[in-house]
Amino acid sequence: MTLTTDFIAELLSAANEVDKLTPYEISRLLDRSIDTIRDIREQAGVACTYMQDVVICLRISSERVRHLSEEDVRRALVTAAEVLSALLSNRVD
């Protein structure tokens, strides 16, 4: 598996164990996902308004993680994993 697919697995695992993570750990995962999404988009030359919106939502979730419910955190982590997976599946090397 590549580093990105490993990270996707890490995000999904974290989504299943939200109650065991600190707000700092969740924020770091979301921040890493934002950076990874941006990097892949730049490398692949993908310009997508939807993904820009998702990145903004992930940034807000990261900044407000202490105020989110476990379900909202879970949803943000899964969304990040889904976007990364979609980017990888459409990536042309």
Molecular structure report:
This protein has 93 residues and is mainly alpha-helical. The protein contains 4 helices and no strands. Helix 2 (23-44) runs antiparallel to helix 3 and helix 2 runs parallel beside helix 4. The protein is globular, with a radius of gyration of 13 Å.
Chain-wise SSE layout:
Layout: H1 3-16, H2 23-44, H3 49-63, H4 70-89
Helix pairs in contact: 1-2, 1-4, 2-3, 2-4, 3-4
Question: What is the compact description of this entry?
Answer:
The chain has about 90 residues and is mainly α. Helix content is about 75%, strand content about 0%.
Low-confidence region ranges: none
* Strand coverage percent: under 5%
* Rg, alpha carbons: 13 Å
SSE string, helices as H and strands as E: HHHH
Major sheet attributes:
none
Helix content estimate: over 70%
**First-last Cα distance:** 16 Å
Oligomer classification? single chain
Please tally the helical runs, counting DSSP H or I stretches of 4 or more residues. 4
Provide the residue-averaged pLDDT.
Answer: 90
User: How many strand segments?
Assistant: 0
Look at the helices and sheets and give the structural class: mainly alpha
Outline? globular
Count of domains: 1
